[in-house]
Structures are given as structure tokens and as C-alpha cells.
Amino acid sequence: MAYRVGVIGGGQLARMMVPPAVHLGIEISVLAETEGSSARLAATRVGDYHDVDVVLDFARGVDVVTFDHEHVPQPVLAALVEAGVEVHPGPAALAVAQDKIVMRERLTALGLPIPDWAAVHDAAGLEAFLADHGGRAVVKTARGGYDGKGVRVVSGAHDADDWFAALADGGSGGALLVEELVEFRRELSQLVARRPSGQIVPWPVVETVQRDGVCAEVFAPAPSSAGRVADVADDIARTVAERLGVTGVLAVELFETTDERLLINELAMRPHNTGHWTIDGSVTSQFEQHLRAVLDLPLGDTGCHRPHSVMVNVLGGPTTGTMADRLPALMLDQPAVKVHDYGKEPRPGRKVGHVTVIGDDLDESVFRARAAVEFFTE
Amino acid sequence: MAYRVGVIGGGQLARMMVPPAVHLGIEISVLAETEGSSARLAATRVGDYHDVDVVLDFARGVDVVTFDHEHVPQPVLAALVEAGVEVHPGPAALAVAQDKIVMRERLTALGLPIPDWAAVHDAAGLEAFLADHGGRAVVKTARGGYDGKGVRVVSGAHDADDWFAALADGGSGGALLVEELVEFRRELSQLVARRPSGQIVPWPVVETVQRDGVCAEVFAPAPSSAGRVADVADDIARTVAERLGVTGVLAVELFETTDERLLINELAMRPHNTGHWTIDGSVTSQFEQHLRAVLDLPLGDTGCHRPHSVMVNVLGGPTTGTMADRLPALMLDQPAVKVHDYGKEPRPGRKVGHVTVIGDDLDESVFRARAAVEFFTE
């Protein structure tokens, strides 16, 4: 019988699981939030992932449930496990991804390198942290943030009063996360995949350039990372995957500090924007590897086709029309660029696609990828 | 607006158009012959492609109609064109692919190199051809043959009497094709893609090994083909594409004779088994290129990731169970092999999947690909 994977969430990550599923003969189905989702081709059901009955019904037709995002509530996850459904990553691992304070508690307990942090309940708590950290810090909401949302640099005790007020209203945990403002040379990302039975396979560590808190560009492998940086990043990600029991793809976003330490910034337990280059640049893409991992199939080779892969996001999309309208001009100009259009309506700041260029020269690949994206964003 | 491509036929060629459609943001839909077809994920309709109304209705939702096979009847194609539907390849080109005698007439008129041939109506005609060609020849039915079906080596005037009788009964053209038995060193295949507006882009010529008339293995590029062989193959395919007005992918199967000539064996006007290696081995796969070509989008780069790509078909499939059952053992043994499972029931001789290995050493890649396929066929 064919393997059957059900994906909760119909975003571009679910969409990009479709091609490797087609090739490997895996039956993929998607529980999408809306009609016309990015993953609509494989969407067998449209429904609310907060609704236990909807999710249980969706899960009946598949061998394993996995995710496009980390937002499925714990009671829904518990109901799936209770019903005997294979869920990867599992509820315990996802709990760590779902709450940034829980994440810091666990990473601290594991002795992993992270920025100084505290859970603060009010302006007084924030003031105390600021006093110990040079008067500036980063405040993050514990839950629900993504792509720069729910993240704010503060320099005064009252700079997060609105968020404290919202906490008091909503009562979601009752604390904000505050972290030291790290002086970093660059940001890195280490992806690994882990099977339930234990096998872990990494890709090379990559450099990621963020703009306004959103991933804009990725260089794979990270320039000048061979040796210590690659080894430490790999060690950190393996430790996180094993000790948190992550299954599927794990992304560990890292700061490389000006004093040459690697500190964990965030974790994601799913295919990740910083791994999109693997579709065109690696023997096994993160989407194929995620499917293999959640099915507990042996993991694939993660060698690279060429010395450099460069991924640039299409953020917002064209000022008029759609990516499709710009495709002919781009393809004429850049026949070797790989285009990925998520089938989403353009909207300022929205991730609507990406391009990848692979090659022997980093500078040329970067130039080509940036030039390609300009066709989609002007 | 997104581009919308409709594919008539739900086989593995339609199935393998789905991944590049997903990446490029092309809406793909398939008119399949049956429920549970290989391309079922994209099958928006199940119906008979001989039925003009079914095909016209299917075509209403797309920008261009293309094909998984060459068997759509000319009256149906004419009705599509009449209704203003873009059809690629078009009826005139497909007419040449649909009838092997028409094909030889056209190739002869173009002065292209082909084996000696004749259209014969009876045993006397066959006997005359045999007398001129050393007493042995190949007889082919003009229509409906594929994968070795409708092809027979004969050494006597009455060896095709059953086929002549069937012709008289059915009246489909009234002739069989007879060709000289070519002494060839090896078989080659030259794929190109051509846009309606004229651009043509080739892949490297490949060597193909046939067993029982079915493609079994492909080595890309063909060993020792750089230079004259590659140039001549490229010239032949370009000429065919231009002069027959082929749009989309064209495969030209060639004999490399013992006296170093290249002769055209057959043509296919669609993605072709001898191009499956491009999914994993080329910057632009034949399936992506076919979509680009039929939409008249600029064609992609056809460079290769590694010096050698080796494709081996999974013919028949496992003696018990399915390819999926054998996947764990294969993946454990060969993490770099790319597996393609067409989601079809195993049946003796049936093409149910293929594997591709890319690498720097041809012998090692061949060894690995063959070893991988053994997991699926024992």
C-alpha cells in the first residue's frame, strides 16, 4: 500500500511537500484553512484545525499527520494521539515550539547556548532586565509571533505596556519574553531531519539575511563556515532534535556573535524558509526529507549539486498584477533561475514565492538571484 | 492570472508534470481515462478522450491543452482548434506522430536520414521488400503501437499475414510499414523542446538501452558522443521540430549504425521515457520545459548537475506487494538514489516507476541505479 501523509495547514510549506510526494508515490492530503489555499491542489478538506472533530476526521484517512505550521492546539494534538494517530512532530516537541518562554526554559535546562533571557510580567520586571543589559533588549510575545510579528526592540520599561495589558486581558501565559540584544556578525540557520527511530541527517549550515524580521536571502552553505562554525551548528541542532524529541525537519536559527559564539535564536519544527534552497540545490530537498522522516523512512543524501545555492524570497510580489505576469520577462532574462510561485495573492510583505540559483561562484549566483526577484517586485 | 494547462491522459507523463506546475505556479488539470489514474492528484475529470463533448468541456477551464500521449483522434483535435483552444503539439504535428507511414513519408520528404522503408499492402509487397533487403525486415503497424507492441521482425512473406488480415477487417489505412533491419551499434535519443514562437532548446543526446522493445536504461549524456554524434543528433531533432511544427517536448529516437550514421527510428511529441533523467539531472526537467513550451514561455537552461545521469526503469514491479513496500530497504541501502513511483499496480512488463542516479563516475552510477531497481523487481 502507498504511504499516506496528512498535512494540517494549507500554506506554501504544505504546497511544496506535494512534488516529492508525487515522485515518491506518497499519497498526500491537506487540511486547509480556506478554499484557494496555497496547497489547494492536495487539499482534500477545508476546515478549522482548532476543531477536534474536523482534525480527527481528516486524520482517519492517513498514516501520519504532520504540519504546515506549529499552531495546532495541544488538546487537538492530544486527541489525535489518543485516537492512535501517528503525529510528527509530536505534541511534546511542538509544545516547545509553540511557546517561546517554554522554549528558553528547555534550552537553558539542556545547557544550550542562547541569549540571556527572562520571563517578565510587568514594567518593573522589564526595567530590571534592561538595567542589567545596557538599557536595551528585545521583547517577544510568548505565543503566536512569526516573521517579525510579536517582536520589538525596547529601551524603556514602559515600551511594552500595550503587550502587558493584552496579556492581562487575554491571560495567555501571563508573561512576555525579554532577551538581551545580541551583537551578531550574521545570522545562520542549521537544518536537520530526524526520524522517530533516531536517525538524524543535517544539511550544511546556511547564512540567512533578514529584513524587517523576515528572511530575505539565504546563502548555502554559509560562506567561510567550514570547520568550527559548521561543526558547532551541527552539534547544537542534533542536540536539540534528540533532546526535544523532534521528528521531521528542525530548523535552528542562530546568531554568530561578534565574539564568535553561536547562540540559538529560534526553533522551527517543520520545513523552513532557510531550507527552500534544498529543492534545487540538494540531492534531497527539505520537503522530501520531511516526508521521509515523518514516515520513519531512511533519510536521503543531503549533498549539494553545486558549491553555492542562493535563495531570495519574493516578498510582497509585484506592485501590479501577479508573479505569473512577470514570468515571461524573467525567464527570457534568466533561463537558469528556478522560480517558485506559491499561488498566493500579492500583499505588502507577504511571502508569495522565492527563486533559487545554484552555481560555482557565490557573487554571480547572488547577483542573478537578486536580479530575478526584481522582476517580481517592481 | 495564473497559467492554466490541461493535460489529456492520466498516465505517468501527466503525473510528472505536476511537480514543476506546482513550483511555477501553473494550475494543472488532467482529463484521465479512469479513476485512480497515475495522475489522479490533478485529475479534475474522468472521461473518454474520444468524446468531443467531454474534451471540449474539459478544455473550457484552461489556457492550453497538451497531452500525456499521442492518441487523441484528429476530429477531436480539430474540434478543439475550431473552438479557439490552444493545442500543443497541434493537430498537424500530431498527425505525423500518430501514423508511422505518414511519419516516414514526411521524414523522407524532408531528406532526413531514416532506414529504408515501404508501405506494404500484402504478402507480395512484403516479399518484394524482403528480397531487396537480405530476407529479413521489421514490420510495424502504422497506428497504435507502443513499447514494442505492433513491431515484429519477419523473415518470410507470410510472417505478417495476421496483421494484413486485421488491416483488411478494420480498414485502418490499409498498409503496414516495413523497414530494413538496421545494424546498429547502439540506440540514442535526442530531446528538444520547441515553443510556438520558435525557440528550440535541446538536452544532451543520451544512450538508451531497450529490452524487448521497451526502454530499460538511459545514460546521459551518451558516452563518447561529444562532437560529431551530438551535433548531428541535435541538427536532426531541430530540423524535425521546425519542419513538422512540433511544440512542446520532441523525442527523436535514433540508431547509431555500425558504419557510424545516425538514422531516425521513431518520434514522440511529448515528454519521453528517455528524458526522465532530467528531473534529477538537469537544471530544467523535460516536464518543466514541456509546460514552458506549450505556454510559449521562454525555455529553461538544460545544463546538467553532474557529469553523468543514469535512469533505470522499474518494469513490472515487485513480484509481491508494491514499490512502497520495498522503499525502506532501498532508501537505507542507497540514500542518494532518486525514486519515482508512478502509483500504478505492478503488472509484468508495465512501467511502474524509475530511479535516477547522478554522479561523477558513469560505471558507479550505473551500478547504483541497477542495484536500486533490484529492490523493486525481485
The percentage helix of chain A is: 25-40%
Number of structural domains of chain A: 3
Please summarize the sheet with the most strands of chain A. Answer: 9 strands, antiparallel
Largest interface, with counts of residues having CB < 8 Å to the other chain, equals: A-B, 46 and 46 residues
Number of helical segments with 4 or more residues of chain A: 13
CATH-wise, what's the superfamily of the largest domain in chain A?
ATP-grasp fold, B domain
**Which architecture name of the largest domain in chain A does CATH use?**
2-Layer Sandwich
Q: Using DSSP, what is the number of strands of chain A?
A: 18
- What Rg of chain A, in angstroms, do the CA atoms define? 20 Å
CATH class of the largest domain in chain A: Alpha Beta
Quaternary structure = homodimer
**Average pLDDT taken over every residue of chain A:** 95
Class inferred from helices and paired strands of chain A: alpha+beta
- CATH topology (fold) name of the largest domain in chain A: D-amino Acid Aminotransferase, Chain A, domain 1
Tell me what portion of residues of chain A adopts beta-strand conformation: 25-35%
Distance between the termini of chain A: 48 Å
Q: Which descriptor suits the 3D outline of chain A?
A: globular
In words, what does this structure look like?
The structure is a homodimer of 378-residue chains. With 378 residues, chain A is an alpha+beta fold. Chain A folds into three domains: 4-87, Rossmann fold (3-Layer(aba) Sandwich); 116-180, ATP-grasp fold, A domain (Dna Ligase, domain 1), CATH 3.30.1490.20; 184-377, ATP-grasp fold, B domain (D-amino Acid Aminotransferase, Chain A, domain 1). Chain A has helices at residues 12-15, 18-24, 52-59, 74-82, 91-98, 100-109, 123-132, 161-170, 228-244, 278-281, 286-294, 323-333, 362-377; strands at residues 4-8, 27-32, 43-46, 64-67, 86-87, 117-120, 137-141, 151-154, 176-180, 184-194, 200-202, 206-211, 214-220, 248-257, 262-268, 308-315, 338-341, 351-359. In chain A, strands 10, 11, 12, 13, 14, 15, 16, 17 and 18 form a nine-stranded antiparallel β-sheet that branches. In chain A, α3 (52-59) crosses α4 (74-82) and α5 (91-98) packs across α6 (100-109). Chain A is globular, with a radius of gyration of 20 Å. The mean pLDDT of chain A is 95. At the A-B interface, α2, α12 and β17 of A face α1, α11 and β17 of B.
